[in-house]
Amino acid sequence: MGFGIGLGAEEYDRSYKDRDLVRRVLAYFRPYKNSLIIVTLFLFAQSIVNALIPIISREAILQLEIADDIEQQQLYIIFLIGITLILNTLGWVFNYYRQTLSSKVIGDAVLDLRKDVNVSVLNHDMSFYDKYPTGKIVSRINTDSRDFGQTADQLSQTVSSILLVGIMFAVMLTINVELTLVVLLLVPFIFVIALSFRKAARRLTLVGQRALAVVNAFVQESFTGIQIAKTFRQESKLFVKFKSVNKQSYQANLKRAYLLNFIFPAMSTVQGIALALLVIVGGTATLNNELQAADFYLFLQSLQLFFFPLFIIASFWPSFQSGLSAAERIFALIDTPPAVIQNDNIVSKKIEGEIIFKDLTFSYVEGKEVLDKGKTSENKTKAKKEVKVFDDFSLNIKPGESLAIVGHTGAGKSSLAKLLARFYEFQSGDILIDGVNIRDYNLKEYRKHIGIIHQVPFLWGDTLENNVKYGRVDASSDDVRWALEQAGGADWVDDLPQGLNTNIRERGSLLSMGQRQLVALARVLLENPSILVLDEATASVDPFTETRIQEALEKTIKGRTSIIIAHRLWTVRQVDRIIVLDHGKIVEEGNHDQLIAQNGVYALLYNTYFRHQSLEYIEKAIEWS
Amino acid sequence: MQKEVLKSANDNAKTEFSPEEDKFSHVRTSSRRWIIAHLLAGPNKFIIVIIFFGTIISSLLGSGLMVLIGTAIDEFSVGDSSNMLSYAIFFFIFAVGSPLLNLLMSLTRENLAQRIERDTRQEFYVSLLGKSQSFHESQRIGDIMARATNDVRMLNFMVSPGLSLLFESFMRLVIPIIFVAIFYPIDLLATPLIFIVLFIITLRGYTRQLDPVANRLRAEFGQMNAVLNETLSGIEVVKGSTTEEYELNRYFINAKGYRDAFVDQGRIMARYIPLLLIGLAITASLGHGIILYIDGKMTVGAIISYVGLMSTLRFPTFISIWVFALIRLAISGADRLLDIMTKESEIDENLEGIEQKIAGKVVFENVSFTYPGSDKNVLNKIDIMVAPGQTVAIVGTTGSGKTTVTKFLSRLYDPNEGRILIDDIDVRDWKLDSLRSQISYIEQDTFLFSDKISENISFGRTSEIEEIQRVAREAQADEFIEQLPQKYDSEVGERGVQLSGGQRQRIAIARAFLTDPRILILDDSTSAIDSDTEDKIQKAMRRILYGRTTFLITHRLSQIRWADLILVMKKGQIIAKGSHENLLKTSEEYRKIFVKRFNLDEKSLLEEVN
Question: Do A600 and A491 fall within a single domain?
């Protein structure tokens, strides 16, 4: 299918019992309980006022026909008109408070939810982000939460409708018991009809929300990769795929809208049957003088006021499904347990930097998109593959030691660094830092001691200065300059339009790849970590700059444990120890000279590498064809 | 340079991509015009007419029912039962017919609403595809996402339920007043007319108040989306720097901004004055009626129905709160879409331009380039002359402008000064399609779409799997692809298999083999390649250079030696050019780049040459 345009559930999706879901939705509104009660009461009061005004007006008009004490009559009429005036104004005041309060409640509850889900998302480890496209997560957090907010309105409307229906029911009873019973007979049908929509409403809403999330993710990917589309002149390829994604969302949301529009007309049909029945029953009663014509008229009018809130109550559950399906998607995200958790809460002021990997086993799970036709996520098609990276791996690194890891792609070099930073959870064995199990540290405090510089640097759409001091906001401009100096020199900074204050744009796109690496390096140097991990940190800078960085790093590395992951072997000659990894195993160990003397894998790699740089090789390469 | 020309009439807006005729470009001068044009486009106008009349009929049916009930009761109360059954049947037909009509109306309306969402989103997307590279670099993707999904959706909501509610409230405002005019003393028109005038005035005030809040609401949403998207895209850095709190706070501030705008909107909606007016109007109508009664101009029954009629105005008055909020939000949403769509893009498709096979001669004449909003030159007076089929190596320190130079060839940017000629024709005179399809890039950091490997390789040209495998072999990518769980069907990119820099680079080489470009730009300043695969990759690269003009950004001596011409760049200028031997002798800068790397002192390097 490609581009992840399927409407399947994510692997972390799950189905909740409606009861649990409602309980949790309500929990978000609990802090605003008082406001919600007031909102409901005001809503109710507003309906009462609206119902009272015609009655009082009628009373005032009817007074005109009674002609005893005219003066008193007039006073009474003026009094009644005054009452309607007050009631009308009150109605507006009630509406004002209700509306103001309810938007506050919704705004606050949605804010709480967004915050909670964001906290939980930020706590996930990298395996989560490897698997799920950010575009879809963003859609869940920001877009679905809006649907969630609407549940507050639905709730208060329903509660006030229940109150109204109760009152109208009493009114109808006082007018005529028999006719009321006729109406009562039909009420269950309304509920049966409305509730029959519930499942389909939920399912179609869910599909609609997913479809929009897919659009979101697609737009994100399109414009992240726009340069490729431009250079290959393949905008039309993206366009064709966009059309299918967009159409998918169109169809899904149209289906949902169609379905939801059936509810009210279906219920109105029952109302029509009720009216027809009442005309026969009530008409006969009127003819037989068992019923006053005026009462009959009043009854029919009350009936309208009875049915409307009844519809709202009956349709509550189906329309609540949109909110519930949004809630379900969001709670699933909140409830997914992060794989990396701390077992204890040890906080170390200073880490010496002793690292021990003991019998470590680690495998990635290569996830495959789970398709389940939009239903529950229980019947997953499992197409997972475990890729074993380390099996019984052991390694000791002394405090302050500099260690280089070399080896082929897929040997596990980067995995080692990522495990050390607790980006992934390993299956068995131990990692001990200063003798303490890595799982026992307070995660965030621990990570502060580790500085990792990645192969592909990620920068923020912010000023250069803020990017450098990202991990240490209290740093001064001088500190920032110092860090940049350390990272290969800061002379290029002055060539930027506003120097350190230049906004380098999202992902740092204003800078060259090499410059981005320098910024990422400076960022970590400023954090001054106890353990430094360089994962091909200088791959994109020119040899001259790299040499300058190398010299600066030699100073930086002193006094802290450093792990240098390198493809280019000339950068690792100075380190204390080199290990050669192959398929998760250490095949050679020692310093440069020892390993060269051993004449094993490292020597071979080094010689190959060196040969590639040698002048003979270069001359030979010219002849290639 | 990139002026904010937001609302300029842009009949001839520049675009790099126009897959189909653009029917709406001329109405993008204002969001209202644009929305209306969409509402009236194609069959939409008929749908709107249908909805309009459907609403009239349905509200007439509703009032008809009440009249019918009245006459029925009148008949019953005088003992006439002859029509009882037909009344029952009529009621049933009315009661069923009216919802049925409503159903048809709402299905039609939904159809229109969803189609407008689909079509405007597509229009927005196409417009984005046509924007220049420098435009895209200045945008925040999260904000673009918000516009493409949520702002577009505002247009949907405006139609459904907004538009039909608008019609309905309009009808329900007008019909009772017409009734008053026909059936009651003309004096009684005073209250409803004064009400209508005040209603319109206060409604204008209401929408004016909503205006800034609706704009704020949409902008805050975009901002919130942009921040979240950026945080999650850079999550590895967030975790590495343990700045979760900071990021959370950043998001919270934005989400709070959205919340505040939302609450402010609620407050404005709450302050809605017409609702107060209608209450006063109903009271006034009661008073007026009574005065007329005292003067003997009205019966009690007439006052009751007159006041009853006036009370029916309450519903449309109340509903207008939502109707106009929905319309206002749609206009704000449309403004945000048009903001992007009407932003001037510098580069045009140039459909009438020259279209021919490129031979490969490339000339840069006095090319200078400045980033928008800055006066510092990124490139300064670049002159290059390359013969067809030659290989040019560009070397220089980080940030010297090596990559930027190559971006003018396929017009990712246009220079501020000077020109670039391909086969002696200014690139601006070429048809963009012809130009770009003959120039390929192998970038430093290869972007892969969340798609199968095979799809990623054949991105530049749709091909059969055999051909994809062939180019993968040529690019030395075949071996590692075969080891992936689903081989060529493996998903890569954001979700799926994570490939190393070297592997991604080989996919890019395979891509280039498949498109067989006339001019190739190979950005290989990266060295993130395993030493053992180095040989293979170097050979693949060597092979791909053949028979085409190539710009090679590199620091590898082996590659540099393939070049017919070497350019040495520093601070946006070409400070030296020539052959390797030549440059070693003449260029201090050139020597500086390589000396330390090879542990050679300058002397021996020079001796080697001599």
Answer: yes
DSSP B325-363: HHHHHHHHHHHHHHHHHTS--S----TTSB-------EE
pLDDT at position B531: 55
CATH number of the domain encompassing residue A446: 3.40.50.300
Q: What is the pLDDT of residue B81?
A: 74
User: How much is the pLDDT for B4?
Assistant: 39
Q: Which domain holds residue B498?
A: 362-609
Of all helices (H) and strands (E), which one includes residue A391? strand A385-397
| Total count of domains within chain A | 2
pLDDT for the residue numbered B152: 95
Per-residue pLDDT of A18-39, as tens digits, reads 889 889 988 999 999 999 899 8
What does the mean pLDDT of chain A come to? 83
Is residue A344 situated within a structural domain? no
Residues of chain A with Cβ-Cβ distance to B535 below 8 Å are 608, 612
Are B316 and B368 members of one domain? Answer: no
Which tokens in the block code for residue A624? Answer: 């290639």
Chain A interface, mutation test: which of B149, B455, B591, most A Cβ atoms within 10 Å? B149
Alpha carbons B68 and B90: distance in angstroms, whole number: 9
**Cis, peptide link before residue B19, omega less than 30° from 0:** no
Nearest CA in chain A to B271: A96
Residue carrying structure tokens 């189905």: A15
Tell me, yes or no, whether B301 and B369 share the same domain.
no
- How many whole angstroms separate alpha carbon B437 and alpha carbon B435? 6
Total domain count for chain B? 2
CB contact under 8 A, A231 and B308: no
Q: Domain of A186?
A: 18-335
- C-beta of residue A492 within 8 angstroms of C-beta of residue A504: no
Which among A444, A540, A544 has CB closest to B593? A544
**Cβ within 8 Å, pair B81-A609:** no
**B594 in a domain, yes or no?**
yes
- The answer, yes or no, to whether residue B289 has pLDDT greater than 60, is yes
C-alpha span between B516 and B43 (Å, rounded):
45
Helix spans in A197-225 (H)? 198-224
User: Given an 8 Å threshold on Cβ–Cβ distance, is A239 in contact with B236?
Assistant: no
Whether residue B317 sits in one domain with residue B377: no
Q: Which uninterrupted H or E stretch holds B171?
A: helix B164-183
Instruction: Establish if A454 touches chain B: CB-CB under 8 angstroms.
Output: yes
Confidence of residue B336 (pLDDT cuts 50, 70, 90): very high
Residue B141 contacts A where some CB pair is shorter than 8 Å = yes
State the Cα–Cα distance between residues A9 and A207, nearest whole angstrom: 9
- Evaluate whether B247 touches A49 at the Cβ level (below 8 Å): no
Beta carbons of B436 and A461 less than 8 Å apart: no
Closest-CA residue of A relative to B525 is A540
The Cβ of residue A597 has, within 10 Å, a number of other Cβ atoms equal to 11
Residue A315 reports pLDDT greater than 70: yes
The alpha carbons of chain B give a radius of gyration, in whole angstroms, of 35
> Where does a domain end: A335, A367, A392?
A335
Distance between CA B153 and CA B118 in Å, rounded? 9
